[in-house]
Design brief:
The chain is mostly helical. The protein has a single domain, classed as Arp2/3 complex 21 kDa subunit ARPC3, CATH 1.10.1760.20. Helices cover 77% and strands 2% of the residues. Strands 1-2 form a two-stranded antiparallel ribbon. Helix 2 runs antiparallel to helix 3, helix 4 runs antiparallel to helix 5 and helix 6 packs antiparallel against helix 7. It is globular and about 50 Å long. The protein starts with a helix and ends with a helix. The N terminus is likely disordered.
Amino acid sequence: MEDIFMENKKLFSAKTAAVIVLGSAVMFTLMRFAAIPSGIPDTTFNPAPAVVSVLAVLFGPIAGFFIAFIGHTLTDLSWGSLWWSWIIADAFYGLLSGLSWKRYRVDEGIFDVRSFLLFNGVQIAANAIAWGGIAPVLDVIIYRESLDTPFLQGLVAGGLNSLVVLVLGSLLMFGYSKTRVKTRGLNMEQSADKKRHT
């Protein structure tokens, strides 16, 4: 049963393309209108990373990459300038978050302690790589920033993102798994009714 489930999880499909469009729009909305300044220049606390993480887990690394890339690009455009180092870092965060997508069974209604630990271990590692490495290094290379500010911003951004994914992302994953349990239960009941009436 699990093998069949895994085979049905395609890396890219029409459904994935639709999720990328919708997810990018949601990310833009959250980054643009639900962001709270952190007190450190150009860093905010917002729920967008949780959405990226969950969609990357459900639809794979390609979806995660493009949702984060497009969503962040649209947000920067709305402010009037593109900050490529952070756009690229966000895109890689989405990609890294989705690399373990086939190891979850959330579509079967399962988000247990093991899944929780995997989900958050991956997202914390992805945040550390994206914001502790990619973003500040590219800030220095592309924009000739001094070493101190980009790494402080990256540390704050990565920490805040990890926190929001730990809380909100985990709740979204758990909630989604519960809807799958209900759906599976309804399908089983419908199958049983059909057998009784044949």
